[in-house]
Write a structure and sequence with these properties.
- This protein has helices spanning about 5-20, 40-45, 135-140, 150, 165-175, 185-205, and strands at about 25-30, 50-55, 60-65, 70-75, 80, 90-95, 100-105, 110-115, 245-250, 255.
- The chain is of the alpha+beta class.
- The longest helix has 20 residues, at about 185-205.
- Bound molecules: zinc ion.
- Zinc ion binds next to loops.
């Protein structure tokens, strides 16, 4: 599933490609990713509009149009935005200059929405913004007795941290995923904050993790899957101490950790 670094990678590729281009046509091969508006209205609202900018909030891409309208895309599990089509293309945006942007989605969990004005997505602070401080983490951890792992994935508290990077950040911070969030000391919260930022920045640098579906806009795999320490490493030796890495389900998500390094 594309998480923050993967969406950021795609956003950085697509932004220079679309800004200043006009939407000249839209081909809808399957309308089920379009939410809250009929396919006919979707076309009517968008054709003729020009892209002004592209920003990212957590796992959402926000396409700003010159009119002040917005288009948001969430890639879900298997969504892709591509410069060339693959076999799961659902929507084609025909852009000025003879270019196309393809939205592909094999499993149809992606969501595309149209807004008249900039939407409020009601997301919690995200790790690469200035609101993501030790103070903020202290505040959200202190009153909560759920496990730190489950809490890190709560998008209302912290947006953009998905399962892969939650596992990797906990390993880097040396914190056991089962720990109650409220039990973390100030020193551990500092380690946690640093580990989350570090792992996300590194993953963006390596253009995301391709563990299953994710490819960038050029259709190429990311590089961070080669740098994962625990995610997907069940029964393999811990890269720090050699202890066998465990996999457990927590909140229905695969949780990978070293019982020796993570206390
Ligand atoms: Zn270990």
């Amino acid at each position: 599933m594309p998480e923050l670094p993967e969406v950021e990678t795609i956003k950085r590729e697509i932004e220079p490609f679309i800004v200043g281009r006009k939407i000249e046509g839209i081909e809808i091969k399957d309308h089920r990713n379009i939410k809250g508006i009929s396919p006919e209205q979707f076309k009517k609202k968008l054709i003729g509009q020009k892209f002004k900018g592209l920003t990212r909030q957590a796992k959402y891409m926000l396409f700003e149009l010159a009119s002040g309208n917005y288009l948001t895309i969430h890639l879900g599990m298997t969504g892709r935005l591509l410069f060339a089509p693959d076999k799961y293309v659902k929507i084609v945006f025909n852009l000025s200059g003879g270019k196309n942007l393809y939205f592909s989605d094999a499993r149809l969990f992606g969501k595309i929405r149209f807004f008249e004005a900039m939407p409020n997505l009601k997301l919690g602070p995200e790790p690469l913004q200035k609101e993501f401080t030790v103070e903020y983490l202290k505040k959200i951890f202190s009153k909560r007795h759920s496990s730190i792992k489950v809490l890190l994935l709560d998008q209302k508290l912290l947006s953009g941290v998905g399962n892969i990077y939650a596992n990797e950040a906990l390993f880097r911070a040396g914190i056991n995923p089962h720990r109650k969030a409220s039990s973390l000391s100030e020193a551990e919260i500092k380690k946690m904050q640093h580990a989350i930022e570090e792992v996300l920045e590194e993953a963006i640098k390596y253009r995301g993790t391709s563990d299953s579906w994710y490819v960038d806009a050029k259709g190429e795999k990311g590089g961070f899957q080669l740098r994962l320490k625990v995610y997907g490493k069940k029964n393999q030796p811990c890269p720090k101490c050699g202890t066998t890495i465990k996999r457990e389900a927590m909140g229905q998500r695969g949780t990978f950790f070293c019982g020796n390094c993570q206390k």
